[in-house]
Amino acid sequence: MSEQIRSAENYHRVTSYRRNRLAHHTLDWANQPVAVKPYPTLPRIYLDRNVELPKINYFKMKKNISAGDDSSSPMLNLREISKVFRLTHDVTARAMHGEKPFYYRSVASAGALYPFEIYLAAHNIHGLHQGLYYYNLFEFSLSPLRTAPIPELVQTKKRVLAAFFLTGIFFRSAWKYRDRAYRYVLLDTGHLIENLRLALGALNYSFSIHFDFDDEKAATLLGLDPAKEVCLAVIHLHGNDGVENTTEKTQPLEPLDSDILQASSVSNMEVEYAPILQMHQAGSIGLKLTTGDPAAPAFLKKRKPRWIDPGPMDLPDKKDYFHVLTTRRSRRNFISASVRPEEFYTFFHQIVRSMETGAGILSGSQTCVTIGLLAGEGLPIVPGVHLVDPSSQRLGCVLDGVFLERMAMACLDQMWLKHVAFHLVFLADLACLDRMWGPRGYRVAMMEAGRLGQQAYLAATALGWGACGIGAIYDEEAADLLDLENGEVLLYLIGIGSVKKRRT
Ligand SMILES: Cc1cc2nc3c(=O)[nH]c(=O)nc-3n(C[C@H](O)[C@H](O)[C@H](O)COP(=O)(O)O)c2cc1C
């Protein structure tokens, strides 16, 4: 009998890729999952795709991100909500895949399968009735699922004007990646979180991000079939009027109709993968929040890096954030070229700053995910494996040598990865994570890796470089290469560097 999955370490091991042991799998194109939930009987409220977006310099954005900041924010209405969605999840390009059109989006996604969805709870939005809405990015519309005041899933002190619920639909990714798909659902949702976090910061809203809530209540509230679609993150948009949250009288939650639940099914031939369900359910007990300061990142504690202080940045001229967001794409046409030191350090600081506690992320996230960097020969730091200490904003070398080609091999022989300037790697000590947060910690760690991955894509785009996320990894080969110990794993990797310029 196959083992019951109860921990991050367990799930990650069971879903590892091993060379010469990948089971053959053909894609069932006739039953490809649908890319959007249809809800055909619900009315539509159309958002304004032509809404004017503020001009925001990507490199100056970090200062604007002020989760919990009490600065005055714009009144929340449908125009503002249109801006939030335009900046969070939108179509950015169209291509023909055979006879069918395919739409690229502002969020990177493993296999372009886009397993995530966004729901909006309107508590106090001018021009929009209180209730719960589904966001359809193709139509740029909202469909009302509930039309009465709805209870908050997470209790916070500050007044909540709107809440965004980010869900993941397992089969969208499992259609291709089978039981490994939970990894990609979480990483992809992390990518989406970063866009939403940046959008709210850029529009000057105060917000908070939550990963700890009652899964069952979330499924009832959103009308999800919990074996197929699950809520992964809740983002509150707060009022900045100093008014504290008062618990408004709301009706007890009635389950939504069965046809709404049915919309979590995205294919006529769905397969349920036990490891995914087991791992997700193991996390349903909630985050085991430890008291006191979280331990220093396990990776940094165990190793003795040769620290260096990064050099100065060279902030390029204005880079319009919307332009960066909409031109972000996965690039694989890397060319071996040296990187200007100032640009490299600019990139480094962009990443480190988005790990600061003021960035609105869960405190302790720095502990659960450690960023490393496999430097090639064209960087201002020695070739080798370096670790990032976000608190002191330093880089430290732990292994000397050029590892890019061997890592490309460990990434299922995607050999174009050897031409990048560096691999950004997201590492975790899963045993430590399981101890610190319990099995739900896996969700947080993977979404955090994805979130930082989206930031890496954006920073690379703004610097005129290319980037590509990599989830296809022979897990043990990568761990051996990085000299990882038992329980330590590579969660995700991004190849970054100069690319052949495209003719536009
Ligand atoms: C979690 C994750 C894993 C990915 N893994 C790979 C990979 O192993 N190989 C690859 O070529 N692209 C990979 N990608 C890139 C996706 O294929 C790409 O994001 C998708 O096709 C959408 O295209 P776009 O990023 O240009 O919008 C990955 C992306 C993400 C977010």
Bound molecules: flavin mononucleotide
Radius of gyration: 22 Å
Query: What is the CATH homology-level superfamily of the largest domain?
Result: NADH Oxidase
| Span between termini | 56 Å
Unreliable segments (pLDDT under 50, ≥5 consecutive)?
none
Any idea what the shape is? globular
Quickly name the level 1 CATH class of the largest domain. Alpha Beta
**Number of domain modules:** 2
Order of the strands making up the biggest sheet: 1-6-5-4-7-9-8
The main pleated sheet reads as:
7 strands, antiparallel
Tally the helices.
Answer: 16
- Structural class, from helix and strand content? alpha+beta
Return the average pLDDT rounded to an integer.
Answer: 91
Share of residues in helices: 25-40%
- Strand segment tally: 16
Q: CATH fold name of the largest domain, please?
A: NADH Oxidase
Percent strand equals 15-25%
CATH architecture of the largest domain: 3-Layer(aba) Sandwich
